[in-house]
Structure formats: structure tokens, C-alpha cells
Design goal:
By secondary structure, the chain is α+β, with helices and mostly antiparallel strands. The protein has one domain. The chain is built from 1 helix and 6 strands; from the N terminus they run αββββββ. Strands 1, 2, 3, 4, 5 and 6 form a 6-stranded antiparallel sheet that branches. Strand 3 and strand 4 form a beta hairpin. The protein is globular, with a radius of gyration of 19 Å.
């Protein structure tokens, strides 16, 4: 009996599971990065201000919306995320904040209209839009 096909299948299957684990670790990293660098500071910022604007949400949850990292036109790797909110006694409101996290630098950007700004923009910092971030480069077709 020839065991080469069986070994080849096992090799392919083991590489697929390691890719899935790698993608899950990137998703876990991105969720933790958004929680610590955006959600927690945003909650603190909102509790410290007095405004006639909307009250702060009771809960926030972070979702990583890409199954695997994407690359922008410069070749930098990122994953997209969304922050959902829930106010007192209400349903989850999805995509309250939409953004991306760059895997190498940890930089976070959020979308406002058609523009992408550094996430600190939501904390009251006057930051200009950044061109070319969070937009996946077109895939080459074979």
C-alpha cells in the first residue's frame, strides 16, 4: 500500500488548521487591541464629559469582520472591525463604529463617511483623514 497520498492529505490538513489558528489569533489580537486602545478610553472619555448629545451606551462589543487579514495597496496587513452598542434595555445596534487595525503597528482607524481617520479622532482629537488606509488592494487574478 502506498502511503504517500495519505501523508500528503495529512500535510494539507495540518497546514489548513494552522492557518485557521493563525487567523483566530489575529482576530483575538485585534479584538483585544480595539478594546484596550479604543473602547476603554472611549468609555472613560464619555463618562468624563457632560453633553446634550446621546448618552453613552451601556455596553459595547467588538467584532472582527474579516476571516483573514487583508493587505492595502502598500502591502500593509490589516483586519476590519466593528463596534456594536447597546443602550439601556435595548437591542444591539450593529456597526456603531467601523474601523480597521493594522497588524504590524497596531494602528487603529475609524471610518467617518468616506474618510478614514486615526481612532483617537473619536476621543476628541482633531486628526485629519488618512488616504489609502483600510482599503484592500485588488486581488491579482490568475
Amino acid at each position: 500500500m502506498n502511503s504517500r497520498p495519505i501523508l500528503s492529505c495529512l500535510l494539507v490538513l495540518s497546514s489548513l488548521s494552522s492557518l485557521a489558528l493563525a487567523d483566530e489569533s489575529v482576530a483575538k489580537w485585534a479584538r483585544e487591541r480595539v478594546e484596550s486602545a479604543l473602547v476603554a478610553p472611549l468609555a472613560q472619555h464619555e463618562s468624563a464629559r457632560f453633553s446634550r448629545g446621546r448618552p453613552p451606551p451601556r455596553e459595547r462589543r467588538v467584532r472582527v469582520t474579516d476571516a483573514a487579514p487583508l493587505a492595502d495597496r502598500s502591502g500593509r496587513s490589516f483586519v476590519r472591525f466593528a463596534v456594536d452598542v447597546r443602550f439601556s434595555g435595548g437591542e444591539w445596534r450593529e456597526n456603531d463604529i467601523v474601523g480597521c487595525a493594522y497588524t504590524r503597528t497596531g494602528a487603529l482607524y475609524v471610518q467617518r463617511g468616506d474618510e478614514w481617520r486615526p481612532a483617537d479622532f473619536l476621543l476628541g482629537k482633531n486628526l485629519e483623514p488618512v488616504a489609502g488606509v483600510c482599503v484592500a488592494a485588488p486581488q491579482a487574478r490568475s
